[in-house]
């Protein structure tokens, strides 16, 4: 009797559970996997979208808060990685980092319009820039290094800029005091750029968007200062380097929040009638302590714009 009752309950509930499963929206991981063919269309020749999907799923496991982000911001960042041929989360190419965007307007499950939510911001690393720069075919080597206080370091500017850097090998090298990048061209020439630690800190304080409520810098500039400083030296140097379409686009996309999923190649995107992707330079802060979003007033212009967008109309 008991077994028969169990069987009948299972038969009656299984279809309902299956229907409920079918009605559930796809998870972020499922959406990433479903976009594999779109990623492949966007990628440079020889790159594999299957690898990008595996890297992206690894990012979700190592940074679980990405699942709290606006899904399109995660997928848009991955589309940029696909177009640039960079691997997110590995090799120091690029990272997708969750931040709280106080300007995001969205509708909750109860139909209430709210402001504020998580988005994913694409951060391109020094190694990613290095990879893109070397694809130009005009660069033999590109090197970035950290100078420590007990190293021997000499810098001379003139007709032939020159750096002599001898790291200390017989003891502690001390604190970081400077950063530099050197590019050598296949033609035989070279360029270099040096930043003191004070200059790197000034750049961080001026441009780092990721901050907590107290205004303190968070994110990569706090957790990986030296790497971000070397990247800054490279970006200063890049002004004097030959640029490929990919390198110029990477500089433009770095630090942005992209929410479109157009798989067009970068050359087409740059020269199209509407060349800019739907990207937002989000004013973002650390997500710690943020609520699920503040309700908007009926007379808030952001609410009117949001409702018009949902209905397919324009903004006032």
Strand content: 15-25%
Low-confidence stretches: 269-291, 296-316
Helix content: 40-55%
How does the major sheet shape up?
Answer: 4 strands, antiparallel
* Count of separate DSSP helical elements: 12
Strand line-up in the sheet with most strands: 10-1-2-11
Number of folding domains?
2
Q: How many individual β-strands? A: 11
Q: What's the pLDDT, averaged over the residues?
A: 79
Helix and strand run: HHHHHEEHEEEEEHHHHEHEEEH
Give the CA-CA distance, first to last residue.
67 Å
Structural class: alpha+beta
Oligomer: single chain
Radius of gyration from CA coordinates: 24 Å
Shape: globular
Biased composition (Basic and acidic residues): 1-10
Region (Disordered): 1-27, 275-316
GO molecular function: DNA binding
Pfam families: RecT (PF03837)
SSE layout:
Blueprint: H1 2-23, H2 28-34, H3 36-42, H4 49-62, H5 71-84, E1 94-107, E2 113-124, H6 126-134, E3 139-148, E4 152-156, E5 162-166, E6 176-185, E7 190-196, H7 197-207, H8 220-223, H9 225-238, H10 245-253, E8 257-258, H11 266-271, E9 279-280, E10 284-285, E11 294-295, H12 301-311
Helix pairs in contact: 3-4, 3-5
Structure summarized in a few sentences:
The protein is α+β, with helices and mostly antiparallel strands and 316 residues long. It is 41% helix and 22% strand.
Give structural notes.
The protein has 316 residues and is α+β, with helices and mostly antiparallel strands. It folds into 2 domains: 25-128 and 244-316, no CATH class; 137-242, no CATH class. The protein is 41% helix and 22% strand. It is built from 12 helices and 11 strands. The chain has helices at 2-23, 28-34, 36-42, 49-62, 71-84, 126-134, 197-207, 220-223, 225-238, 245-253, 266-271, 301-311, and strands at residues 94-107, 113-124, 139-148, 152-156, 162-166, 176-185, 190-196, 257-258, 279-280, 284-285, 294-295. The strands form 4 sheets. A 4-stranded antiparallel beta sheet has the order 10-1-2-11. Strands 3-6-7 form a 3-stranded antiparallel beta sheet. Strands 4-5 form a two-stranded antiparallel sheet. β6 (176-185) and β7 (190-196) form a beta hairpin. α3 (36-42) packs parallel to α5. The longest helix has 22 residues, at 2-23. It is globular, with a radius of gyration of 24 Å. Residues 269-291 and 296-316 have low confidence and may be disordered.
